[in-house]
Write a structure and sequence with these properties.
With 188 residues, the chain is an alpha/beta fold. It contains seven helices and eight strands, in the order E-E-E-H-E-E-H-E-H-H-H-H-E-H-E.
């Protein structure tokens, strides 16, 4: 069981215990402030539990390097940070040294490749500070493509579609369903 609070006097997770079978999907639901996103932060080791352990395939994540742990986990957050650079660079950030063909394959998987090709500069189009030149749906697809390129064993979808309109949300949910099929997935 895991115990955690950002403030030692206010516990957010009190005795949380759960098991997710490899390749399965788990949805975590609850009211605002219940600790749903905190679980993702603990899994990524942005924080360590005050008590208890988190195991992946029987191994305590506190005993592995953050680099190797983070290589195994991909997260698609509600608002992905995009760099003031090209779309290609932002997708390629998912895996250092990725070939252009791999970046394009990830974009196809996220259903944004055709949109990128429709832009005058294609993959060399600059997205602006924090991706301001892209719509919310386009930014989410870039975030999904980045995560696909990373090819993680564990996928965390942290309110990945909550800021989108219903039409865009339905389209992106279909993409997310497809990419989560072969991975252990946590949906917050």
């Amino acid at each position: 069981a895991v115990y955690f609070g950002y403030d030692p006097d206010r516990e957010i997770l009190h005795g949380l215990s759960l098991t997710i079978e490899a390749g399965k999907t788990l949805a975590i639901v609850g009211p605002t402030g219940a600790g749903k996103s905190t679980i993702a932060r603990l899994l990524f080791r942005f924080y360590d539990p005050q008590k208890g352990r988190i195991l992946i395939d029987g191994q305590d994540i506190a005993t592995v390097s953050q680099k190797s742990l983070r290589a195994a986990i991909g997260i698609v957050p509600q608002d992905m940070v995009l760099f003031n650079d090209t779309i290609g660079y932002n997708i390629g950030y998912g895996r250092e040294g990725a070939a252009q063909s791999e970046i394009e394959a990830a974009a196809r998987g996220a259903a944004i490749h055709d949109f990128i090709l429709s832009l005058p500069q294609g993959y060399d189009t600059r997205v602006g500070e924090r991706g301001l030149k892209l719509s919310g749906g386009e930014k989410q697809r870039v975030a999904i493509a980045r995560t696909l390129l990373k090819d993680p064993h564990i996928l965390v979808l942290d309110e990945a579609t909550s800021a989108l309109d219903s039409r865009t949300e339905a389209s992106i949910q279909a993409v997310l369903r497809d990419i989560s099929r072969k991975r252990t997935t946590i949906i917050v």
